[in-house]
């Protein structure tokens, strides 16, 4: 099953017509079990999907509900002993009494456990309570293959009990089984597995640092980076290696965690290179650590801005902690620097210092660097209404670079002069 329309419908038909559950219910995504459950209820009042041979006499086409109730022929002459629906169908039956009675079949059919999980969030209380009792009887490791479905259903109003059982099982399970789930493709599943692994101390600080530095999930970045540098996590030389791993991460939030931890490690001076990090968050953490070590970062920024080629972000940092009367002139002078990266960070510094002047920044809408155009646009947006409309309209012609046309469109809309949706630029 792939959970898309006809596939789950065909699964319902196959199960009803005698296919062994294992043939249909193999390893499938959580949404397919939910789709199968919904399809049984949805199809119960539709004509049965199998077409009638042409030579058969005309008679009412039985619905799926007719079949579930045992009416396979004319409604006027149902069979005397209707066969019961297969357990997989009965577990999703529209009638709660049928669903409740079918739950016992799960004891001898492990492949139907996903539908037991679905019934744990059933809207009928007796069905829900019986399903939960049966799920609680399962050994903990039987819940791990069901983790994705359990977590998907936990978003529903009545899905919290199965999640609690899963979390309890993970807290008691062997480390290898918990760590195996950290590689699960489902985001909610691997996040939970990592959280339990961190709680239980199943990952070394270096493993945590490596995960934080290499994964793209921001939740895991925060979780693992904080756990890697918590007090007492790694002794002696290992602590230094863990910090160095965080400090070289691509993600700004991970580098920020590493920089902040330098204070606790007594390595205040090692924060100085991060004063010119490309991320404002990391720069702020570096300034904090240096101040805690008795170093004022402002003179460092002023010295770096005298020759910003090697450290373009020094201009942004100067604006973030500088003095308007003293440092605004330095930043305005850097606005004409030949390096686009210096101009971009200078605009950021002017915004941070709150000395943006519309007349002096508007010409940068024609800058040859798209990054500078974007930075100037962000700085001008709060005062877009003050820019003469003709200056913007003349930059919106097709021969202008795409970055300029996008910038003009944003500014016109911010000024209330253009209400149509933004055009798609090529």
TrEMBL record:
SUPFAM superfamilies: ARM repeat (SSF48371)
Domain of life of the source: Bacteria
InterPro entries reported for this sequence: ARM-like, ARM-type_fold
Protein name: HEAT repeat domain-containing protein
UniProt source species: Streptomyces globisporus
């Amino acid at each position: 099953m792939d959970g898309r329309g006809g596939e789950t419908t065909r699964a319902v038909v196959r199960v009803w017509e005698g296919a062994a559950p294992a043939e249909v219910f193999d390893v499938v995504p959580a949404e397919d079990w939910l789709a199968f459950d919904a399809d049984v209820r949805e199809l119960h009042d539709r004509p049965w999907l199998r077409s009638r041979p042409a030579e058969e006499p005309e008679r009412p086409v039985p619905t799926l509900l007719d079949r579930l109730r045992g009416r396979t022929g004319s409604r006027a002459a149902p069979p005397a002993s209707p066969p019961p629906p297969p357990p997989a169908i009965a577990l999703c039956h529209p009638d709660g009494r049928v669903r409740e009675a079918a739950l016992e079949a799960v004891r001898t059919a492990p492949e139907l456990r996903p539908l037991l999980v679905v019934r744990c969030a059933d809207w009928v209380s007796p069905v829900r309570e019986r399903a939960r009792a049966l799920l609680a009887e399962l050994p903990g490791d039987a819940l791990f293959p069901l983790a994705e479905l359990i977590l998907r259903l936990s978003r529903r109003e009545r899905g919290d009990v199965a999640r609690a059982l899963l979390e309890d099982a993970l807290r008691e399970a062997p480390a290898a089984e918990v760590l195996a789930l950290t590689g699960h493709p489902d985001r909610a599943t691997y996040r939970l597995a990592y959280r339990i692994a961190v709680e239980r101390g199943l990952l070394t600080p270096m493993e945590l640092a490596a995960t934080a530095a290499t994964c793209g999930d921001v939740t895991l970045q925060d979780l693992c980076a904080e756990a890697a540098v918590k007090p007492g996590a790694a002794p002696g030389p290992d602590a230094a290696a863990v910090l160095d791993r965080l400090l070289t991460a691509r993600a700004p939030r991970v580098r920020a965690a590493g920089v902040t931890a330098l204070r606790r490690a007594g390595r205040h001076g090692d924060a100085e290179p991060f004063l010119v990090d490309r991320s404002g968050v990391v720069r702020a953490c570096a300034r904090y650590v240096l101040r805690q070590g008795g170093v004022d970062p402002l003179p460092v920024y002023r010295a770096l801005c005298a020759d910003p080629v090697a450290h373009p972000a020094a201009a942004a940092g100067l604006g973030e902690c500088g003095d308007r009367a003293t440092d605004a002139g330095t930043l305005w002078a850097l606005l004409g620097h030949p390096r686009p990266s210096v101009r971009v960070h200078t605009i950021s510094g002017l915004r941070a210092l709150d000395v943006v002047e519309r007349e002096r920044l508007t010409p940068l809408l024609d800058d040859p660097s798209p990054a500078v155009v974007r930075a100037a646009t962000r700085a001008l947006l709060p005062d877009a209404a003050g820019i003469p409309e003709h200056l913007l309209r003349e930059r919106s012609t097709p021969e202008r670079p795409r970055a300029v046309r996008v910038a003009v469109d944003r500014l016109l809309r911010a000024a209330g002069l253009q209400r149509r949706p933004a055009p798609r630029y090529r």
